[in-house]
Amino acid sequence: MNFDDLKKEWNAETTEGSNISSDMLKIKQSHTPIDKIRAKMKHEFFYQLAFLVFMVFIPFIAEFSVALNQLYFMTYAIICGFTAYYFLKFYRFYKNSYDMSMDTRKNILWFYYEMKLNIELYKALTYIIVFIIVGFMSAYFLIEKATVFAKILTRLSIVYILLNCFITVLIIGLITELWAWYCYGKYLKQVKKVVDELDYE
User: Can you tell me the distance from the alpha carbon of 100 to that of 107, in angstroms, rounded to the nearest whole number?
Assistant: First the structure.
């Protein structure tokens, strides 16, 4: 083998090395948003857990009647059931996100699509809980404020109440979308950018 052949081989190896380091740089870029998402998930878990614990004390703070107490704790049990399912799915995803048995690109791609699915699940859970709470509030007015409610229950007030419920659901929907974007969406977009760049190459 002459000197020119050795030179060509050396240049080929150098080019391969630069490609690998370029890919590794992109993977490092993806780890930053992935790590941020994991941190947000951990905080979210503790916030929701703290809120569930706080909800136990609401009947005692508001001094609900015996009938309303029973209804409240039935509602609370349903909310806990839905939340427990969500927590389980979220925890499994969080734990599996540290599994590096796949190659790096597949791992990032898997993380991206699973996180998208979990965000949709997160939003669905929020809407379910909101509708359960709206149902409980309706029961609260019928049980605790029946006489007051009967006096104001005219055609105009029914339209007003329904309009208020609709606007409340819209506002909560908007807050949920913005919160999901703020906590996870913007970082997920960065991960997608890395995946697209790796696919392009």
Answer: 7
